[in-house]
């Protein structure tokens, strides 16, 4: 039931749709739904809910742009596989990490939702058909065709075969789509109140542990604000979602949703790596480079990749990973001067609006070059000694030992324990990548297109994974934080049900990629949007 309009906001002036706790002192805020986090999941939920007549408080820990002091709240510890510094692995301001999103859009494959008996802990509570309509809506929100278009003809039409299959990314054409300026119409809606510099310190549970009664919100100066709603949604990302649930332990010592010790477990990424390189020449080399180039289709672009067929996955008992070909420096060589300069500048620049504009300029220049030069630039780089590398973007098997925990001896400025990431991989991750590379190699040779030379580590049982700083500007993974509050119908197998409602807490929900039971090869953003739309419909009573 919606709260009465007079309870929408206990401020006296309910016409003010943006509250900045760096300046304002509201004391108490009320709405039908309180959403923690203003990234793509939170914004998608908010839009759908206000369209359905609900009042929404959208709580953002940061401000309208990057601030170093707020970013420090992300600082934590990484104790497993090498990973990016946690303070740099996600962003705290309106729009969240989508502010630097590369725009790659793809659906999960049907097999990603299945329980694969060779993949422990796999299986979603529903199949692809449950998201089909929401995927169409999600693409529309990104100004892309509702139905994914057929890929442009290329050499990969021949590569498509019984063991490997072509897939496509669509590229969202708009930079900073979810930032404050781009979302201004949403933030001016009378049923939405954006609250910035509002860090949720704890989700407060009733004394009997049966439902949520409020949020303990902290301003930058340390003042407390009480937030009360009918429903609460945690949409703060795959690291912060488990962190907040685990830290909310005043009533439940193990944290919320953690009766079966599952919160924070099953952390997954999309590991990146070098799978080998191609030996080819002449027209065949040109055609291979061209096949994996981004292609313009009207106002947006697409890019191709190759994944193992469902049949190969079942036969060889492997994961749904992906690879693409790209001209890269040979393994063990030096980074090109221009790339080194770009990476140095990227790490020096904070992701402020100005810094993101510089990144946008770089990306736009690349698009202009691709449009006018095509694969010639990459062909010339190959002639200068670079190799046509197999760039892996892999699925990681769900692993309960790969997890996010808390260091209760190290607190951030709000008093919340800092996160500890113990990212772990398994032999199945490496074996799956190896099977994909070998299958691709068989297909390439059968078509007389060249020869694939796999990297030795793929067949080394002593290695789970090997990263390569020369193969991608993001050499470790895609900054995709998945699985840490996974969905399952059985509370002993997951933190939430199939709609993201936390088991045992009927008015607490989780949104985002932390819900994913498995990660597939596809970038998570489109599925995050689709899940958020479906979850909003559930909150609105439509499902």
Describe the protein's architecture and organization:
This protein has 543 residues and is of the alpha/beta class. 26% of the residues lie in helices and 21% in strands. The chain has 14 helices and 19 strands. The protein has helices at residues 40-51, 68-71, 110-113, 132-141, 156-159, 184-187, 240-247, 282-291, 310-316, 337-348, 353-373, 376-383, 427-446, 525-539; strands at 18-20, 28-36, 56-59, 77-78, 104-105, 164-171, 192-196, 199-205, 212-218, 224-234, 272-279, 295-297, 300-308, 322-328, 387-393, 403-411, 417-422, 451-454, 508-510. Strands 1, 2, 3, 7, 8, 9, 10 and 19 form an 8-stranded mixed beta sheet that branches. It has a 4-stranded antiparallel beta sheet with strand order 5-6-13-12. Helix 1 runs parallel beside helix 14 (525-539) and helix 4 (132-141) crosses helix 14 (525-539). The radius of gyration is 23 Å and the shape is globular. It starts with 17 loop residues before the first strand and ends with a helix. Mean pLDDT is 91; it is low at 1-15.
